[in-house]
Amino acid sequence: MKVLFYYPAVTPRTDFPTWEPLQILYLARMMRDKDIDVEIIDGRITSTHEELKTRFLEAIDNSTICLGITSLTCYQMIDAVRAMNLVKSLFPNLPIVFGGWHASIFSEEIIKMNQVDIVVAGQGENSFLEVVQRLSLKESLSGIKGILWKSSSRIVKEKERELESLDAMPNLLSDEFKLLDLKYYQCNKIMYYMSSVGCPYSCNYCCVGADSKKKWIGLSSENVIFEIENLWNTFKFKELIFWDNVFFINKKRVEGICHGLIQKKIDIAWSAHGRINEVISWDDTFIELLRKSGCKSIFIGVESGSQNILDRLNKGIKARDVIPALKKLRKYGIGVAVNYMVGLPGETHNDIKQTIGSIMGGLKLYGFDLNLFQVFIYKFVPFPKTEVYRQLDHLTYSDLPSDSTEWAKYIHYKVNDGMEPWEKENSNSLFASSVFFLWKGYLTKKPPESFKQRVLMKIARSRLSTGFYRFPIEWHLWKLLRKKSINE
Ligand code: B12
Ligand code: SF4
Fold this sequence. Notes:
The chain is of the alpha/beta class and 488 residues long. It has helices at 22-28, 49-59, 75-90, 101-105, 107-110, 125-136, 174-177, 207-212, 221-235, 251-263, 276-281, 284-292, 307-312, 322-331, 349-365, 387-391, 404-413, 427-441, 451-466, 473-481, and strands spanning 2-7, 37-42, 64-70, 96-99, 118-120, 147-151, 154-157, 190-193, 196-198, 216-218, 239-242, 269-274, 295-303, 335-342, 373-379.
């Protein structure tokens, strides 16, 4: 018996080595010792139609129970549709199970797609294992929590699945990574890893808070160390990145992880997501322990320098705490990667100026060292199924995509280039655009590689020195130079 997974390409072109398809490895561990083989096709490697067709023809046979596909709301969905169409044309009876963030957010829409037989919403391990076991026994899927499925073309929505204990699941081990052709991946340099699920906060622009119903579950520090030690012994990576939404929720657990890394002499630099309200509450002993265990950097969503905006985002942090919190980390040589957003509904010039002030404050604190103080400025996107999306004046934002596939295209083609079509060209959004290009043009570690980047950097530098953000010529330039279009 075998389960086949497809990991859709995240962008049209991938630079190798790249990150491992973590979602699939976490699911694959559930099949260990269950007499179910796992095979993974990575769409980033198998890029042409012919290659993909050959891979599917080789991989699928009578013993294949189903095809599992994952996707975020981005280009991955476009590639997922390509793969599903291909598989359904070759093997119309092979059940396709769709999971991941995109399927969880748009579950009712995705299950209506002809190609999809089963949707797994939310945490996938046990739901998927149950689906696989029932399919292999040709039993009904009725009653499996967390799924939507088709019963003689009628759609059945089962009860939601609450977040489940991670300690009760099989450990993630290097065995799972051996399912991959390791020459394409970077696990011998950087290991991506997840030690908890959910989030107890409710920032209203984020789908995680809403999805987890304020629940958070962490794997025990003992199990985290057991898994990291196993992976490190095999791959000897230099860097570990915790992909947890919020890593520091349980301070005792983090202390246990730090002590474990030190005791086991696991010599790595690690990074994880934290929050300003957490950092400000930490004492020196804790921060020193983080540093001693290898903590190199903390990813922090500051989002805005304006308290007014932070309150509207329900962010639960104080703008005035940002610099004091960063000072605490700076004292022990811990760097940060901070995210900001601009272009929110109702955001004023003054709010945006406070955001620039907050960024400049951090830059000064870290002596303009972009290795220690990394900045990412995004343009605000009202992500579907978030509270902020529900609160929108949908007449003003009438150009937002209407369905899940359009959303995926929109995120890929527009958002990452700062080109939201819904954005009315009022002075605030143009102002926001030029601030967005500060990041593209100036706050980047990479030296400019092209003429376009050099121009962007020049404009960004002069904006920072003069404080003049009107007339976003860089935005218009970007639009002119941009080759991709939503119709590609
Ligand atoms: C790593 C990461 C990335 C990486 C890699 C993404 C990838 N495709 O793997 C990069 C940097 C590329 C990225 C980009 C983006 N990301 Co991101 N990213 C993450 C992060 C931090 C971890 C993802 C991960 O690997 N999780 C580990 C796995 C094990 O967990 P999981 O994905 O939840 O999988 C579980 C279930 O979903 C389910 N499941 C998943 N797949 C499948 C498949 C099957 C068949 C089944 C049955 C179950 C199942 O089971 C798994 C185990 O329980 C998450 C936050 C988080 N903690 O999840 C955000 C997150 C997924 N990203 C998010 C966003 C917004 C983005 C961007 C749109 C940001 C932007 N504006 O550019 C982009 C979009 C991509 C793009 N091309 O532009 C959002 C989700 C939005 C969405 N609806 O998809 C998240 C949740 C962050 C947040 N707080 O909002 N991201
Ligand atoms: S932005 Fe981060 S802290 Fe806020 S709800 Fe989302 S995952 Fe939680």
